[in-house]
Design goal:
With 178 residues, this protein is α+β, with helices and mostly antiparallel strands. Helix content is 28%, strand content 32%. It has 3 domains: 3-37; 47-113, no CATH class; 126-173. The strands form 2 sheets. A 5-stranded antiparallel β-sheet has the order 4-3-2-1-5, with helices on one face. A 5-stranded antiparallel β-sheet has the order 9-8-7-6-10. Strand 2 and strand 3 (69-76) form a beta hairpin. The protein is rod-shaped, with a radius of gyration of 25 Å. The N and C termini lie far apart (56 Å).
């Protein structure tokens, strides 16, 4: 039954509510309507993605639902910025995020917790790659960082998204994790 048909059925029954049997039929139809047609579109903790008109991938995580308004973390994958905002959102414009997109969002949350955009490394950050720790050094290309062992020798340029940010240079300067 479509929402329009259900609505018509409810209106029909409203006119004849004096009869107990019809009243119960109305209540049953209304309960079916609420159950089948008015479930919240989004749930807290769900991840979605969409592409903007500029073809930029955005990944979002629902943090609160207030009717047709959601509060969510939005990751702009082009800028690496993660922001929290409230927006009216419709499921026809978003799709469930893939496991890879969810991992990217969670990585962005980690960088944001350290005051950074996604994959933003700075000179003297401590980074981890394949279980080993290195110092990072920025390069002129945004997707690369140079890494070196703690002896300061052997700088190699590598893809930034292959590294985990362990401790920022600012945290090191202030005496450890903040």
């Amino acid at each position: 039954m479509t929402e329009k048909n259900m609505s018509g059925k409810i209106n029909e029954l409203l006119e004849t509510l004096k009869d107990d049997e019809k009243r119960q039929a109305f209540l049953n139809a209304f309960e079916e309507f609420l159950t089948n047609y008015h479930q919240p579109a989004f749930a807290v903790g769900e991840y979605y993605f969409y592409k903007s008109m500029e073809n930029v991938l955005h990944i979002l995580k629902i943090t609160a639902v207030m009717g047709n308004i959601v509060e969510a973390g939005f990751l702009d994958t082009e800028t690496g910025k993660l922001i929290n905002t409230r927006i009216e959102l419709d499921k026809k414009y978003v799709q469930p995020a893939t496991a890879e997109q969810i991992a990217t969002f969670q990585r962005a949350e980690h960088f944001a917790s350290k005051g950074r955009k996604l994959d933003e490394f700075r000179d003297r950050d401590i980074v981890k790659y394949e279980g080993e720790l290195f110092f990072a050094k920025t390069t002129s290309e945004s997707n690369l960082i140079s890494v070196s062992g703690f002896d300061g020798y052997g700088w190699d340029d590598m893809n930034a998204d292959e590294f985990d940010l362990i401790e920022t240079a600012e945290e090191l300067k202030n005496g450890g994790n903040s």
